Amino acid sequence: MSIALRSHPRANSALPVLAVLFACACPAFAQSPPPAPENARLEYAQVLRAEPVYQTLRATSMVERCEATTPVAEEQRRGVARWVGAVKDVLRSEDDRVEETDRSAGGDCRMVPIEREFRRPIAYDVDYVHKGVKYRSRLPYDPGNRLRVRVSVTPIVPPAGER
Predict the structure, then answer these.
(1) How far is the C-alpha of 67 from the C-alpha of 106, rounded, in Å?
(2) May I ask which residue range the UniProt record assigns to the signal sequence (predicted)?
(3) pLDDT beneath 70: ranges in the chain
(4) What is the spatial distance between Cα 73 and Cα 49, in angstroms, rounded to a whole number?
(5) Which of 66, 78, 100, 140 fits 109 for a cystine, CB–CB 3.0-4.6 Å?
(6) Contact present, 66 and 100 (Cβ < 8 Å)
(7) Angle at the Cα of 83 (from 82 to 86), degrees rounded to 5?
């Protein structure tokens, strides 16, 4: 490195100037004013109610459903099949009263769309009291019995002509 500086005479005179400029610039960066202290503190509020906000999702899937071409008599069902058939008959609505059969039994099979709805909580509307004043906020979680709140006090300074 010293060889490169000796081969360029201007580099030798520029080096001290750059060092002085760098030394002068560093304190300017180091002496930035500290952030003003904020008039805020953390306290707890009493939660009155947390009501979930739900998102409803719909999903459609295709299911193969086979119908018997000839009705299956109750006597043909034996054992567990008879019990399962009775439960299906009770749970099935009047519109769905079609006797289902296995594909191997030679029934009429077709693909039927089945739509399902899923509900999941995405947020909570929270009512809470702090120092006797009621508030409401929407939070991404259920806070439980207490809610941590940030209390900040800032004076209002009117313009110079209104003082």
Answers:
(1) 9
(2) 1-30
(3) 1-36, 68-81, 83-84, 87, 90-107, 163
(4) 55
(5) 66
(6) yes
(7) 85
Q: Which of 67, 64, 65, 63 is closest to 98 using CA atoms? A: 67
146-152 vs 40-67, strand pairing mode: antiparallel
Q: Which residue has the tokens 């000796």?
A: 6
Contact 63, 115 (CB under 8 A): no
Whether 57 and 121 have beta carbons less than 8 Å apart is answered as no
User: According to DSSP H, which parts of the chain are helical?
Assistant: 2-7, 9-30, 80-91
Could you give the CA distance from residue 105 to residue 72 in angstroms, rounded to a whole number? 11
Residue whose entry in the numeric block shows the structure tokens 């610039």:
25
Contact between residue 17 and residue 90 where contact means Cβ atoms under 8 Å apart: no
Whether this model's pTM surpasses 0.70: no
Q: What strands, in cross-sheet order, belong to the sheet with 108-130?
A: 133-139, 108-130, 40-67, 146-152
Beta bridge partners of 161: none
